[in-house]
Amino acid sequence: MHTRFCDVFGVDYPIVQGGMQWVGRAELVSAVAEAGGLGFLTALTQPTPEALADEIRRCRELTDKPFGVNLTILPAITPPPYAEYRDAIIESGVRIVETAGANPAEHLPVFRAAGVKVLHKCTSVRHAVKAEELGVDAVSIDGFECAGHPGEDDIGGLVLIPATAQRLDIPIIASGGFADARGLVAALALGADGINMGTRFLATREAPVHENVKRRLVEATELDTELIFRPLRNTARVAGNAISRKVVSILDEGGRFEDVRPLVAGARGRAVFEQGDLDEGIWTAGIVQGLIDDIPTVAELIERMVAEARELIEGRLTALVRG
Fold first, then answer.
1. What pTM was estimated for this model as a whole?
2. Domain residue spans of the chain
3. Mean pLDDT of 39-65
4. What is the C-alpha separation between 251 and 228, in angstroms, rounded?
5. CATH architecture, domain 4-209+289-322
């Protein structure tokens, strides 16, 4: 289970825990690193660049293996101080960054000068091609199955991954719909160099969220998500609950963002993770929850995936070729 992605980013296994708002904290990220994967702290989970530097230090106290920081760049009336978060990452000695959201061109020269490798998250082939032209070191390509923002093209991973692989020369991480060894082997067969998992890592012992959230992921099926903001062309896949269904209803009936703003406030989503009231706000979850049936430690999850992937490749798939 060693690919060129492992060589570029210095990890044992091509398994990535992407940045997740309110979730990408030191206890989860360090566990992924210790298990041989690549974990990302989420910069904007921290209220200030100084708090991010503190979280990086806390993660280093828990692991001496490589980990990164996610910097998601989104348009806003009053945007966070992205450059200050970027500088905190560099000054803390982190050498791997996951960028997402807007075009990272403004930040790439600074990261490159500091020797930081950049993995950029995309939702389309055209954006992945552009990211490679800009000079990122790898891309994470998100299929329509993913939690969070899948873009507006609605292309699933079965097509999106090979379509991207045949256009790019840099490593590709497949994202959206991955939870186990079957997905890992399938992604490699489709041309990816590894996989990214968010929802699956949310249902682990180390994930810093309420147990109610983890149990809901085990109980839920692939049908239990909602696509909100579709009429606004800012689609997001979130867990199905009273709030997300209400948001869908309001917007489908012609409502505007201002009409749902109080329902989708980030503070309410954070409260779900911290307090465990699953209907308090919206929270992201992918359709892959239909494949989650336990809450293991991160080490148990990664070790199981790697072992079962080897068995699939060396056993069932090899037998099919011999047959």
1. 0.96
2. 4-209+289-322, 225-284
3. 98
4. 8
5. Alpha-Beta Barrel (3.20)
